[in-house]
Amino acid sequence: MGRDHGDGLVAIAGRIGVVTSVALNLTVFAFYLRGRFFGAGAGAGDKEAGKKVKKAAAIAPSYGKPPVSADSIINLDHGDPTMFEAFWRGPMGERATVVIPGWQTMSYFSDVGNLCWFLEPGLEREVRRLHRLVGNAAAEGYHVLVGTGSMQLVQAALYALAPPGGAAAPISIVSPAPFYSSYPAVTDFLKSGLYRWAGDANAFEGDEYIELVCSPSNPDGGIREAVLKSKSGKAIHDLAYYWPQYTPITHMLAHDIMLFTVSKCTGHAGTRIGWALVKDREVAQKMNKYLELNTIGVSKDSQLRAAKILETVADGYERQPAGATGDASLLFHYAQRQMMQRWRALRAAVTASGIFSLPDEVAGFCTFAKDTVTANPGSGRTWKGVDCRELTMVYVAPCRLTP
Amino acid sequence: MGRDHGDGLVAIAGRIGVVTSVALNLTVFAFYLRGRFFGAGAGAGDKEAGKKVKKAAAIAPSYGKPPVSADSIINLDHGDPTMFEAFWRGPMGERATVVIPGWQTMSYFSDVGNLCWFLEPGLEREVRRLHRLVGNAAAEGYHVLVGTGSMQLVQAALYALAPPGGAAAPISIVSPAPFYSSYPAVTDFLKSGLYRWAGDANAFEGDEYIELVCSPSNPDGGIREAVLKSKSGKAIHDLAYYWPQYTPITHMLAHDIMLFTVSKCTGHAGTRIGWALVKDREVAQKMNKYLELNTIGVSKDSQLRAAKILETVADGYERQPAGATGDASLLFHYAQRQMMQRWRALRAAVTASGIFSLPDEVAGFCTFAKDTVTANPGSGRTWKGVDCRELTMVYVAPCRLTP
């Protein structure tokens, strides 16, 4: 479901336009548009790329998905970050292999002395190491919590920050529009008495709220800061896309609660591992309580695997492994190149189609790349010229993007 | 945290007595009581067993727990099913090893054609095969859903069965006392407007409710059926302990919603994999929706591992592997022997102590073992003679069981 899914998305798409999770569908999108608007006579480059897509589909593991072709219909409802799979099939992939014997990780516990007693020490170590390497977030002095993906951690943070029961009314959860399509659904689906979705942060009036700040933003890739500034208000920073392949790293962020996920960082969505950096001990304890009650901790197998994957990424930069040339050992460089190529293809196709528009390119100095680089948002938003409300995800797929 | 943890447990322990998750702490418990009540002059058998415990502790993986000794303090707050680890270190363990290369299971999806699109086909196959082998639950004609442990599936089922929003009042969630200590906390921690904990099913009056039926019951190991019979009432059967090592398998159950977990079936608690067998398609869809919104599916790494483990268990019975003698290839037989030995040790120690009492032994004909066998509950309940309310989990640990 990528980070765009469900009723929430349809509702928002209806209101604000057509939301496309670009990172996930970009290839299909570009190929479809090319197939449709450039006709069958695709250039040599297209054919080459088409072969690659076909080959990847042929050896795809258990997605259960049909192979991608020029006639594929674009599913804008959700995405799937398998675009980095080729990197992990390269020379670094073998280093990231995990072997788990039958007797391992049987216990509920990973470290009974840790606040987050189900967090594998190896994962915590590699999370801190990766943030030091990339410089995108301060991890020192922060508690590390692990979640089943970062959306579970969003819910843990809402639980931790909301005033405990007995309050007169649930606290308002807001986010500046256009916001990530799952936020309203995830906030409201259990009709919690602790918190309630209150929509666009820009339109919110009041001092008591929790603001969800998604930066770079899903859906539009923009860099965001909390728009509300009340002293009693609280913020949760969802930084899933704050990695060098999506955006220049301009600051080492140090917010109270910062959320990340391997699905966007390394492309391992199926592993369902997210993590939170939490400044305040009491908040971290309450978030941990949520994770205990909700799922009694987090898969240790996936934690061991995520630790190995993050270790491999950092090793690729810090230990210059033999046998890997170009960016084959440098995940962020490889991934940035992929994203750039896809955005280029998308811009060309969209311009030719005349149906959609795309946000302008943004560049900035990246402290990690030590260079000025273009942002390649992991998600993007496109508009149809008129009557966007009708062109929701539900209609896009069957009508094959016909206006 | 086993299946006994948190504020809920303390509250219930205060009301109904001292709850012990026996499966998890039985060794420690028996050794502590022996050490305390039989003095330092332990027999040769005790010494031998003591050595084994020490050896196991020395090679323990990353629990972060101190080694067990005769001076260990019993933590009755929770348990940890690592007692089957020795089986998985035996000849069958190697067969259960999984190897996951860096490029595998990156997608969110496992089978886009399945109602539960994040369920690995291999896990579904092995779940169905195991139920056919053991004969404890009908899987044919049922939808299989996977969860991050079975407690997530309890919450998914509450969400699916509760009347959708807009209802005048949240539906009542009940369970016959003594009930599993986490049920109230898990039901109420988000103060959902969809459902609310209403306590003992035996004391409930009304027609609209969801009854949680835990059988064999945690905490007392008893075989349970739904106590409420209203036509409009609904039941969720939590069958975590309905495996041959804990109780005779007397019926192939065929309830509307049946929940299981590898943590109690094979001992792999850290893997966090549970599954649901659901009769009604619409209910299965709503449960799936919960899993999508809560954690966007379930770790594929853990699913692959759970599939391999269940496959190994079934192979042990159906393919008679070479090199495994006695019950070394037969998980349920091995585990039943372990449980029986521990209950025997516990009964001896408890009788000698005079402080606690234990439930009477129950036996029945097991269709799986094709023999009359004694139940060896995975959890047990003990009472202090007087003023149980004071002897909650909180006090037991520091006071070393001193009355």
Which key features would you list for this structure?
three-stranded antiparallel sheet, alpha/beta, homodimer, Aspartate Aminotransferase, domain 2, 15% strand, 403 residues, disordered N terminus
Description:
- Two copies of one chain form a homodimer.
- Chain A starts with 5 loop residues before the first helix and ends with a helix.
- Chain A is globular.
- In chain A, a hairpin with a 4-residue loop joins strand 11 (363-366) and strand 12.
- The first copy, chain A, has helices spanning 6-16, 22-37, 44-58, 85-88, 121-134, 150-161, 182-188, 262-265, 281-295, 300-318, 331-353, 393-399; strands at 18-20, 98-100, 143-148, 171-175, 195-200, 209-214, 234-238, 257-261, 273-278, 356-357, 363-366, 371-374, 380-384.
- Chain A folds into two domains: 6-85 and 328-399, Aspartate Aminotransferase, domain 1; 96-317, 3-Layer(aba) Sandwich (Aspartate Aminotransferase, domain 2).
- Chain A is built from twelve helices and 13 strands.
- The longest helix of chain A has 23 residues, at 331-353.
- Chain A is of the alpha/beta class and 403 residues long.
- In chain A, the strands form three sheets. Chain A has a seven-stranded mixed sheet with strand order 3-9-8-7-6-4-5.
- Helix content of chain A is 36%, strand content 15%.
- At the A-B interface, strand 2, helix 6, helix 7, helix 9 and helix 10 of A face strand 2, helix 6, helix 7, helix 9 and helix 10 of B.
Chart the SSEs and their pairings.
2 copies of one chain form a homodimer.
Chain A: H1 6-16, E1 18-20, H2 22-37, H3 44-58, H4 85-88, E2 98-100, H5 121-134, E3 143-148, H6 150-161, E4 171-175, H7 182-188, E5 195-200, E6 209-214, E7 234-238, E8 257-261, H8 262-265, E9 273-278, H9 281-295, H10 300-318, H11 331-353, E10 356-357, E11 363-366, E12 371-374, E13 380-384, H12 393-399
Parallel strand pairs in A: 4-5, 4-6, 6-7, 7-8
Antiparallel strand pairs in A: 1-13, 3-9, 8-9, 10-13, 11-12
